[in-house]
Design a protein that fits this description.
Blueprint (H helix, E strand, L loop, with lengths): L7 E10 L3 H10 L4 E6 L8 E8 L2 E8 L5 H9 L2 E9 L2 H10 L4 E10 L2 E9 L5 E6 L12 E2 L10 E10 L5 H12 L2 E6 L10 E8 L6 E8 L6 H9 L3 E9 L2 H10 L10 H10 L6 H7 L2 E5 L2 E7 L10 E8 L9 H15 L3
Parallel strand pairs: 1-4, 5-8, 10-13, 14-17
Antiparallel strand pairs: 1-5, 2-3, 2-9, 3-4, 6-7, 7-8, 10-14, 11-12, 12-13, 15-16, 16-17
Amino acid sequence: MAEDFLPIKGYDHIEFYVGNAKQAAHFYDKTFGFRPVAKVGLETGCRDRASYVMEQGNVRFVLTTAYGPDHEIARHCALHGDGVKVIALTVNDCEAALRETKSRGATVLQKATAQEDQDGVLVSGVIKYAGDTVFKFVERKNYRGAFAPGYRPIQAHGSQSVGLAAIDHVVTNVHLGEMNFWARWYEQVLGFTNLCGFTDKDISTEYSALMSKVMENGTGKCKFPINEPAEGKKKSQIEEFLDYYYGPGVQHVAMNSGNIYETVTELRRRDIDFLRVPDTYYGYMRERVGDVGEDWDKLQDLGILLDKDDDGYLLQIFTAPVQDRPTLFFEVIERHGSRGFGIGNFKALFVSIEQEQALRGNL
């Protein structure tokens, strides 16, 4: 077996560029149950931006906004709306990660940079990814602070957790014809392998279709599906995303829950909107999957989807977009052995998404 030239410990954080970080932090606190743990801004000596660090389980989100219009963050938000800018991965050696990926074709946007304060030293570097999205390598083995030098811990109670435990996967949408390019990029630059793939025969309805490849690192901790649109009679959800995001970017972030029933019940109580599949889905899937020990009536009541493969089964549900543009959304997933992505649910989910697109006049 070839040596892993890019050993990744896991997801470090996801950074979103947003129009108003304070309001976004309030939203992720009160609805999704993320606790604010650190902040950088004017009161910490940062003159150009504000960032709030939000945590729940092993999930860490960073919400960042610019103080002025002539700033890369402000321009990013003007073009794309609120969305994911940085996918940060924890590594043992940032300099080695940059050196190895650069030698394999990565474009380095920020060389290994050390920041230091009374809590130690944090090293990070950045490489280019699809569209305006970037990957950041973070070496924090010698850092003990709340997040990073310059950030001040926040002593805030925050809302009760909804049970989100970890990032399961991060999905990128790209233009037609680009999926295979980025799959090869993951293989050559990051040393990932292709876990599985889906064609337009797997994921299609009467009107639209998509194709997808799932890339994962050597330990299987980090998974990155890549979607591209396929030819169809009408505009697919991927094309809608690309139109309103103005280019490739992160379509959704999937997070694990140890009890998806409790998580979804609480999220619904907090007014999070979820995509809803037709009720006929449950009769069909009950017959196809059989008894796996789950309460089908409860699944149907909450709108949770179930799929089964050779390794086990999974439960999943998708939110509606979390901003006005029909772009970024979230997935909640609970795995029982299955390493898949719910291919048996794709058609029903596509129908549901197309119904939402039709309401927006974008199908």
